[in-house]
């Protein structure tokens, strides 16, 4: 399975996929890594010798123009699956339509709880005793697509946004590596889910 992974930040979840793909038995390979900015996580591309591209949102007059430029870069690699792993940008409908259903996203909450860009902060603010991690199919909403996998993560009394996020990321990575495996071996059929 050829993967293109899109990031905005440190790419720690991306790194977990790169490490999983080191195993010759793992039926997926990251063929390119993209970002909407000069993301720190692009360093993993260099380390693992994988092509990368950055389509900076700031260089475009609007979201649609940015999305079209990003889509052009992504489609060059003819991916079987595109993974948003910490991409902190909503994709324009044209991009979602072009890539769906082979477009998934990781989110640091137990969706549909706490969608959006601040899921971890919102869980802390809500004072819940547990949150979670989710992997979903991307649709035109915000973290609203079909849920492929999710798991609860405890919130500890003295948790900060960062300590909780770190704990959630550990689970996100496990879910992501497993979901990609399930898609590669047909256990998950995205076309059936998004029909
Ligand atoms: C992940 O928790 C992802 O779900 C969220 O932002 C975080 C990105 O972390 N959207 P990283 O860039 O993979 O370290």
UniProtKB/TrEMBL annotation:
<dbReference type="Pfam" id="PF00551">
    <property type="entry name" value="Formyl_trans_N"/>
</dbReference>
<feature type="binding site">
    <location>
        <begin position="88"/>
        <end position="91"/>
    </location>
    <ligand>
        <name>(6R)-10-formyltetrahydrofolate</name>
    </ligand>
</feature>
<feature type="domain" description="Formyl transferase N-terminal">
    <location>
        <begin position="2"/>
        <end position="180"/>
    </location>
</feature>
<dbReference type="InterPro" id="IPR004607">
    <property type="entry name" value="GART"/>
</dbReference>
<dbReference type="GO" id="GO:0005829">
    <property type="term" value="C:cytosol"/>
</dbReference>
<keyword id="KW-0658">Purine biosynthesis</keyword>
<dbReference type="GO" id="GO:0004644">
    <property type="term" value="F:phosphoribosylglycinamide formyltransferase activity"/>
</dbReference>
<feature type="binding site">
    <location>
        <begin position="11"/>
        <end position="13"/>
    </location>
    <ligand>
        <name>N(1)-(5-phospho-beta-D-ribosyl)glycinamide</name>
    </ligand>
</feature>
<protein>
    <recommendedName>
        <fullName>Phosphoribosylglycinamide formyltransferase</fullName>
        <ecNumber>2.1.2.2</ecNumber>
    </recommendedName>
</protein>
<keyword id="KW-0808">Transferase</keyword>
<dbReference type="InterPro" id="IPR002376">
    <property type="entry name" value="Formyl_transf_N"/>
</dbReference>
<dbReference type="InterPro" id="IPR036477">
    <property type="entry name" value="Formyl_transf_N_sf"/>
</dbReference>
<comment type="similarity">
    <text>Belongs to the GART family.</text>
</comment>
<comment type="pathway">
    <text>Purine metabolism; IMP biosynthesis via de novo pathway; N(2)-formyl-N(1)-(5-phospho-D-ribosyl)glycinamide from N(1)-(5-phospho-D-ribosyl)glycinamide (10-formyl THF route): step 1/1.</text>
</comment>
<feature type="active site" description="Proton donor">
    <location>
        <position position="107"/>
    </location>
</feature>
<dbReference type="GO" id="GO:0006189">
    <property type="term" value="P:'de novo' IMP biosynthetic process"/>
</dbReference>
<feature type="binding site">
    <location>
        <position position="105"/>
    </location>
    <ligand>
        <name>(6R)-10-formyltetrahydrofolate</name>
    </ligand>
</feature>
<feature type="site" description="Raises pKa of active site His">
    <location>
        <position position="143"/>
    </location>
</feature>
<feature type="binding site">
    <location>
        <position position="63"/>
    </location>
    <ligand>
        <name>(6R)-10-formyltetrahydrofolate</name>
    </ligand>
</feature>
<comment type="function">
    <text>Catalyzes the transfer of a formyl group from 10-formyltetrahydrofolate to 5-phospho-ribosyl-glycinamide (GAR), producing 5-phospho-ribosyl-N-formylglycinamide (FGAR) and tetrahydrofolate.</text>
</comment>
């Amino acid at each position: 399975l050829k993967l293109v992974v899109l990031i905005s930040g440190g790419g720690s979840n991306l790194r977990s996929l790169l490490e999983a793909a080191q195993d010759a038995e793992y039926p997926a390979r990251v063929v390119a890594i993209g970002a909407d900015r000069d993301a720190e996580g692009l360093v993993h591309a260099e380390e693992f010798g994988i092509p990368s591209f950055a389509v900076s949102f700031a260089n475009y007059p609007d979201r649609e123009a940015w999305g079209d430029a990003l889509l052009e870069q992504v489609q060059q690699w003819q991916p079987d699956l595109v993974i948003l792993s910490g991409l902190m940008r909503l994709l324009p409908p044209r991009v979602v339509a072009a890539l769906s259903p082979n477009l998934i996203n990781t989110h640091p909450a137990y969706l549909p709880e706490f969608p959006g860009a601040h899921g971890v902060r919102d869980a802390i603010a809500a004072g819940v005793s547990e949150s979670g991690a989710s992997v979903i199919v991307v649709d035109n909403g915000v973290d609203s697509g079909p849920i492929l996998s999710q798991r609860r993560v405890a919130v500890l009394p003295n948790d900060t946004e960062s300590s909780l996020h770190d704990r959630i990321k550990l689970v996100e990575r496990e879910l992501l590596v497993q979901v990609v495996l399930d898609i590669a071996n047909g256990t998950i059929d995205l076309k059936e889910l998004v029909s």
